[in-house]
Design a protein that fits this description.
The chain contains 3 helices and 11 strands, in the order αβαββββββαββββ. It is α+β, with helices and mostly antiparallel strands and 180 residues long. The strands form 2 sheets. Strands 2, 3, 4, 5, 6, 7 and 8 form a 7-stranded antiparallel β-sheet that branches. The protein has a 4-stranded antiparallel β-sheet with strand order 1-11-10-9. A hairpin with a 4-residue loop joins strand 3 and strand 4. The chain is elongated.
Protein backbone atom coordinates (compact mmCIF):
# COMPACT_ATOMS: atom_id res chain seq x y z
CA UNK A 1 0.00 0.00 0.00
CA UNK A 2 2.82 2.34 0.88
CA UNK A 3 4.59 1.69 -2.46
CA UNK A 4 1.46 2.61 -4.43
CA UNK A 5 0.93 5.86 -2.53
CA UNK A 6 4.61 6.84 -3.01
CA UNK A 7 4.31 6.06 -6.73
CA UNK A 8 1.17 8.17 -7.00
CA UNK A 9 2.83 10.93 -5.02
CA UNK A 10 5.89 10.85 -7.30
CA UNK A 11 3.69 10.87 -10.43
CA UNK A 12 1.68 13.79 -9.07
CA UNK A 13 4.89 15.74 -8.34
CA UNK A 14 6.17 14.99 -11.85
CA UNK A 15 2.91 16.28 -13.38
CA UNK A 16 3.12 19.46 -11.27
CA UNK A 17 6.74 20.06 -12.28
CA UNK A 18 5.87 19.53 -15.94
CA UNK A 19 2.94 21.94 -15.72
CA UNK A 20 5.00 24.59 -13.95
CA UNK A 21 7.75 24.27 -16.57
CA UNK A 22 5.17 24.79 -19.33
CA UNK A 23 3.69 27.81 -17.58
CA UNK A 24 7.06 29.53 -17.23
CA UNK A 25 7.76 29.83 -20.96
CA UNK A 26 6.70 32.64 -23.28
CA UNK A 27 3.01 33.03 -24.16
CA UNK A 28 1.38 34.77 -27.08
CA UNK A 29 -1.52 37.17 -26.99
CA UNK A 30 -3.43 38.32 -30.11
CA UNK A 31 -5.49 41.41 -30.85
CA UNK A 32 -7.51 41.39 -34.05
CA UNK A 33 -7.48 44.13 -36.66
CA UNK A 34 -11.21 44.71 -36.06
CA UNK A 35 -10.63 45.15 -32.30
CA UNK A 36 -7.88 47.71 -32.97
CA UNK A 37 -10.16 49.47 -35.46
CA UNK A 38 -12.99 49.86 -32.92
CA UNK A 39 -10.51 51.12 -30.28
CA UNK A 40 -9.07 53.69 -32.70
CA UNK A 41 -12.61 54.88 -33.53
CA UNK A 42 -13.28 55.44 -29.81
CA UNK A 43 -10.00 57.25 -29.20
CA UNK A 44 -10.43 59.62 -32.14
CA UNK A 45 -14.17 60.26 -31.70
CA UNK A 46 -13.77 63.58 -29.87
CA UNK A 47 -13.27 66.59 -32.16
CA UNK A 48 -9.88 68.28 -32.00
CA UNK A 49 -9.10 71.98 -32.14
CA UNK A 50 -5.83 72.55 -33.98
CA UNK A 51 -3.96 75.86 -33.57
CA UNK A 52 -7.17 77.33 -32.08
CA UNK A 53 -8.32 77.81 -35.68
CA UNK A 54 -9.29 74.42 -37.13
CA UNK A 55 -11.97 72.10 -35.78
CA UNK A 56 -11.19 68.57 -36.94
CA UNK A 57 -13.53 65.61 -36.63
CA UNK A 58 -12.33 62.10 -37.47
CA UNK A 59 -14.60 59.08 -37.82
CA UNK A 60 -15.06 55.66 -39.39
CA UNK A 61 -11.46 54.44 -39.39
CA UNK A 62 -10.66 51.59 -41.72
CA UNK A 63 -7.38 50.05 -40.64
CA UNK A 64 -4.96 47.63 -42.16
CA UNK A 65 -2.06 46.00 -40.36
CA UNK A 66 1.06 45.89 -42.55
CA UNK A 67 3.38 43.02 -41.66
CA UNK A 68 6.07 44.32 -44.03
CA UNK A 69 6.54 47.67 -42.28
CA UNK A 70 5.05 46.58 -38.92
CA UNK A 71 2.79 49.66 -39.10
CA UNK A 72 -0.92 50.19 -38.67
CA UNK A 73 -2.44 52.15 -41.57
CA UNK A 74 -5.79 53.90 -41.20
CA UNK A 75 -8.08 55.87 -43.49
CA UNK A 76 -10.47 58.17 -41.64
CA UNK A 77 -13.44 60.26 -42.72
CA UNK A 78 -12.41 63.83 -41.93
CA UNK A 79 -14.25 67.14 -41.54
CA UNK A 80 -12.25 70.35 -41.09
CA UNK A 81 -13.97 73.63 -40.35
CA UNK A 82 -12.79 77.02 -39.21
CA UNK A 83 -14.50 80.14 -37.93
CA UNK A 84 -12.42 81.96 -40.55
CA UNK A 85 -14.25 80.24 -43.42
CA UNK A 86 -17.79 79.21 -44.29
CA UNK A 87 -16.52 76.17 -46.19
CA UNK A 88 -16.01 72.82 -44.50
CA UNK A 89 -13.41 70.52 -45.97
CA UNK A 90 -14.70 66.97 -46.19
CA UNK A 91 -12.52 64.08 -47.18
CA UNK A 92 -10.25 61.24 -46.19
CA UNK A 93 -7.13 61.35 -44.04
CA UNK A 94 -4.58 58.53 -44.28
CA UNK A 95 -2.36 57.98 -41.24
CA UNK A 96 0.05 55.29 -40.11
CA UNK A 97 1.88 54.48 -36.92
CA UNK A 98 3.97 51.90 -35.11
CA UNK A 99 2.54 49.86 -32.28
CA UNK A 100 4.41 49.86 -28.97
CA UNK A 101 3.82 48.90 -25.36
CA UNK A 102 3.64 51.51 -22.60
CA UNK A 103 4.62 49.72 -19.37
CA UNK A 104 3.31 52.53 -17.15
CA UNK A 105 -0.28 52.12 -18.37
CA UNK A 106 -0.03 48.51 -19.65
CA UNK A 107 -1.34 49.78 -22.99
CA UNK A 108 -0.67 49.15 -26.65
CA UNK A 109 -0.04 52.59 -28.12
CA UNK A 110 -0.01 53.97 -31.65
CA UNK A 111 3.22 55.97 -31.88
CA UNK A 112 5.56 57.40 -34.51
CA UNK A 113 2.36 58.46 -36.26
CA UNK A 114 2.45 60.33 -39.49
CA UNK A 115 0.00 61.57 -42.05
CA UNK A 116 0.44 59.63 -45.27
CA UNK A 117 -1.93 61.76 -47.32
CA UNK A 118 -5.30 63.38 -47.57
CA UNK A 119 -7.93 64.03 -50.16
CA UNK A 120 -10.45 66.81 -49.43
CA UNK A 121 -13.39 67.88 -51.56
CA UNK A 122 -11.94 65.75 -54.37
CA UNK A 123 -8.51 67.37 -54.46
CA UNK A 124 -5.25 65.90 -53.24
CA UNK A 125 -3.21 68.23 -51.09
CA UNK A 126 0.45 68.40 -52.05
CA UNK A 127 3.53 67.34 -50.09
CA UNK A 128 4.02 70.87 -48.74
CA UNK A 129 0.72 70.62 -46.84
CA UNK A 130 1.43 67.03 -45.81
CA UNK A 131 4.69 68.23 -44.20
CA UNK A 132 2.84 71.02 -42.36
CA UNK A 133 0.14 68.67 -41.08
CA UNK A 134 2.76 66.07 -40.08
CA UNK A 135 4.46 68.70 -37.95
CA UNK A 136 1.15 69.62 -36.33
CA UNK A 137 0.17 65.95 -35.93
CA UNK A 138 3.34 65.10 -33.99
CA UNK A 139 1.44 65.98 -30.80
CA UNK A 140 -2.08 65.35 -32.02
CA UNK A 141 -1.64 61.75 -33.24
CA UNK A 142 1.15 60.56 -30.94
CA UNK A 143 0.72 57.86 -28.32
CA UNK A 144 -2.90 57.00 -28.92
CA UNK A 145 -3.86 54.17 -26.56
CA UNK A 146 -5.45 51.33 -28.53
CA UNK A 147 -5.65 48.45 -26.08
CA UNK A 148 -5.07 48.14 -22.36
CA UNK A 149 -3.79 44.77 -21.19
CA UNK A 150 -5.71 43.49 -18.19
CA UNK A 151 -3.77 42.23 -15.15
CA UNK A 152 -4.95 38.69 -16.00
CA UNK A 153 -3.32 39.01 -19.46
CA UNK A 154 0.04 39.57 -17.77
CA UNK A 155 -0.03 36.67 -15.34
CA UNK A 156 -0.57 32.95 -15.29
CA UNK A 157 -0.97 31.59 -11.79
CA UNK A 158 1.86 33.16 -9.81
CA UNK A 159 3.96 33.84 -12.90
CA UNK A 160 4.09 37.45 -14.16
CA UNK A 161 4.74 38.38 -17.79
CA UNK A 162 5.93 41.43 -19.69
CA UNK A 163 5.30 42.12 -23.38
CA UNK A 164 8.22 41.28 -25.64
CA UNK A 165 8.04 41.18 -29.44
CA UNK A 166 5.15 42.64 -31.41
CA UNK A 167 4.54 40.96 -34.73
CA UNK A 168 1.82 41.57 -37.26
CA UNK A 169 0.67 38.24 -38.66
CA UNK A 170 -2.15 38.42 -41.17
CA UNK A 171 -4.95 40.48 -39.64
CA UNK A 172 -3.74 40.13 -36.04
CA UNK A 173 -1.23 41.83 -33.80
CA UNK A 174 0.60 39.07 -31.92
CA UNK A 175 2.40 39.96 -28.74
CA UNK A 176 4.89 37.61 -27.14
CA UNK A 177 4.61 37.72 -23.36
CA UNK A 178 7.88 36.89 -21.62
CA UNK A 179 8.07 35.56 -18.06
CA UNK A 180 9.66 37.89 -15.51
Amino acid sequence: MRIISSGIKASFMLVLLTLSACASGPRTFSISESELQSRLARELSAPVKLLHVFDISLSNPVIQLDDGSERLHATLDTHISSPLSTETLVGKLDISGKLRFDAQTSSIMLSESRIEGFNFNGMQLNKQYTGLFNTLAEDWLQDIPLYRLKPDDLKNGYKRYVPGDFKIIGRDLRITLLPQ
